[in-house]
């Protein structure tokens, strides 16, 4: 049995959760999330906790046990607190700005790259080089941050490019001169 799947999901006061077959709906102060869970698991709501359990002892049911618990926990955290990813732009002349809802990134190309956020995602720029992606769905926030990073991934020689705030870039020595 999954160690992650065994732990119950605590539900905060302002969050409500409903189960309709395999469809899970979580409502909270930041919004509402709905997801269809894979087969092989069952949900039991007791007081302010949700317990996920496999329906059979078959391998597909046990595989999905921890996954479903983690998905529900992320949905609960998203509608109550939200998720953010912070990116840093490193390099001379590289910067970002928000125009309306869109993010415009100048990262050394001949043209600025403009990105339109999906529903529920907001971009925020601090001091022209720090981009903050925020929203209630952890999966979409992570995907959008990865798309922004892919505009100009950090290079190993000088570290220029777009990197996550907590990412460590392994540096290479580069060329060495003749002696």
Question: Could you characterize what this model shows?
Answer:
The chain is α+β, with helices and mostly antiparallel strands and 179 residues long. The chain folds into two domains: 78 residues, Outer Surface Protein A, domain 3 (Alpha-Beta Complex), CATH 3.90.930.12; 82 residues, Ribosomal protein L6 (Outer Surface Protein A, domain 3, Alpha-Beta Complex). It is built from three helices and 13 strands, in the order H-E-E-E-E-E-E-H-E-E-E-E-E-E-H-E. The strands form four sheets. A four-stranded antiparallel β-sheet has the order 11-12-7-13. Strands 1-6-5 form a three-stranded antiparallel β-sheet. A hairpin with a 3-residue loop joins strand 11 and strand 12. The longest helix has 22 residues.
Total separate domains? 2
Instruction: State the end-to-end CA separation.
Output: 62 Å
**Unreliable segments of 5+ consecutive residues:** none
Please name the CATH topology of the largest domain. Answer: Outer Surface Protein A, domain 3
List its salient traits:
Outer Surface Protein A, domain 3; 37% strand; 2 domains; elongated; 179 residues; three-stranded antiparallel β-sheet; alpha+beta; four-stranded antiparallel β-sheet
Could you give a quick summary of the protein structure above?
By secondary structure, this protein is an alpha+beta fold. The chain has helices spanning 3-6, 59-80, 138-149, and strands at 9-10, 16-20, 23-28, 31-36, 41-46, 49-54, 83-90, 95-99, 102-106, 113-115, 122-126, 130-135, 161-164.
């Amino acid at each position: 049995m999954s160690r992650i799947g065994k732990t119950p999901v605590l539900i905060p006061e302002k969050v409500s959760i409903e189960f309709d077959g395999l469809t899970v709906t979580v409502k909270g102060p930041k919004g509402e999330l709905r997801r269809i869970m894979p087969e092989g698991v069952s949900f039991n709501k007791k007081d302010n906790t949700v317990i996920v359990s496999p329906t059979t002892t078959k391998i597909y049911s046990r595989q999905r046990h921890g996954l479903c618990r983690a998905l529900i926990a992320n949905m609960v955290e998203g509608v109550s607190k939200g998720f953010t990813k912070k990116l840093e732009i490193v390099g001379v002349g590289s910067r970002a700005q928000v125009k309306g809802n869109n993010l415009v990134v100048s990262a050394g190309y001949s043209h600025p790259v403009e990105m339109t956020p999906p529903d529920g995602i907001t971009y925020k720029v601090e001091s022209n080089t720090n981009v903050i992606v925020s929203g209630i769905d952890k999966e979409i926030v992570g995907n959008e941050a990865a798309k922004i990073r892919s505009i100009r991934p950090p290079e190993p020689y000088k570290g220029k490019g777009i990197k996550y705030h907590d990412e460590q870039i392994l540096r290479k020595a580069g060329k060495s001169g003749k002696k």
